[in-house]
Amino acid sequence: MSQSSQRNPEPGSVGPAGLVRTEAAALEALASRLEGPMAEPFDRAVELILLCGQGNGRVVVTGMGKSGIIAQKIAATLSSTGSPALFLHPAEAVHGDLGVLLTGDVVVALSASGETEEILRLLATLKRKGDALVSFTCNLNSTLAEASDVALNCGVEREACGLNLAPTASTTTMLALGDALAIAVSLRKGFRVEDFAELHPGGKLGKRLAKVGDLMHSGEAVPVVAPTTPMTDVIYEMSSKKLGIATVQDKGKLCGVISDGDLRRLLEREGGAALSRTAGEAMNAHPRTIAASELAATALAILEERKITSLIVIDGNQIVEGVVHLHDLWGVELI
Fold first, then answer.
1. What structural domains does the chain harbor?
2. Is it the case that residue 282 has pLDDT exceeding 90?
3. Angle at 75 between CA 73 and CA 80, to 5 degrees
4. What is the mean pLDDT of the chain?
């Protein structure tokens, strides 16, 4: 096979597995650069974004065509990990959207060639505003790279498509590099699970990261009896509130809990005589509790480990704030 045919095989001559391996090889090469010559410029890019975040600056990510689609995803990842970011379409920018750029922003520009006309038109405005420019490009000798404060190399040996033309391996390396940059910045900021939860309140992910206080039953929904309450009234309270337990409280402070299981075992031991007891005599004085600020996933882990269905939510003074039931946690995944 000739050298030219190796560079440009006929469409379809490379199978899907080979295409994926081409992209995987591009990622391996990128990883090697990040451990070697690109480590220092990558760290400078992280510092620029951190410095921007100390003021009112944002990260503005731009790119044209396929690179623009990757730029949108990078902007979304930055925002969801604590670095305010937005996507700027370079063609729209020169028709008025440049107004979104503020002094103090960091611009991340994606262009495989480094010569994308729509991107280069932005350079004069960026220099005038004094905004920092980080570029992702496959050509470190390009106009864009030379104009950048930091140029990060996304070069690939070849694209994954059979014609070596369609942006495939190059856009994959851009995406991976953007993810690496966003996560590196979030780690430097000390971004926590709790911070992530605040930015993802919806859907399954939101429930996984929700706090116990967001899901618990509170107020009138909490079954409450006093230590002196007769068991007949305890049973009525448990049945009416439908949580399978009754909290035994004295002036709002938790004394103990009576669960369906506690009641069943008491009846098995004492029969009808159990109904002559008070809540204080029948309760479990050492129930499992949790704070409202804990993650829902933590509550689920405790319930599964202890094989129980409810946790009492209390504050630091043992005051009852609510009850979280296993049913409330359906859809939550353990972290």
1. 3-191 (3.40.50.10490), 208-329 (3.10.580.10)
2. yes
3. 95
4. 87
